């Protein structure tokens, strides 16, 4: 059954890339426009649809969860690499804009962490729950 979960992931990926290519042609950009994101959305929709319920439970569901967890960091790394290459090709202004965005993001972490109210800490895990996670 694991192979069916991987097959569902593969179909979503192929459809997403195809739709991204079509979007690129429509807006006259020689690139895939959001194909990986579209594939991710298709996977989420497929996993929540009753028709694919048998594929998203049990062993195949574990396979889908594994590949979904691997999918996001890989896509982020690929996108970050493309952005760095484009920034270096774009010149000094693009590099400066990227560096300033990172500096401002780091500076806002303490500000954002103070937003909201403090809640009570979670209760400690007992021994049976520690072994399950």
- Total DSSP helices: 5
Mean pLDDT: 77
Percent strand equals under 5%
Structural class: mainly alpha
Number of strands: 0
Order of SSEs, N→C?
HHHHH
How large is the radius of gyration?
21 Å
| Largest β sheet strand count, sense and barrel closure | none
What would you call the shape? Answer: flat
Helix-residue proportion: over 70%
For the terminal residues, how far apart are their CA atoms? 23 Å
Uncertain regions: pLDDT < 50 for 5+ in a row?
none
List keywords for this structure.
flat, 5 helices, 133 residues, single chain, mainly alpha
Write up what this structure looks like:
It is a single chain. With 133 residues, this protein is mostly helical. The chain contains five helices and no strands. Helix 1 (2-26) runs parallel beside helix 3 (58-90) and helix 3 (58-90) crosses helix 4 (92-113).
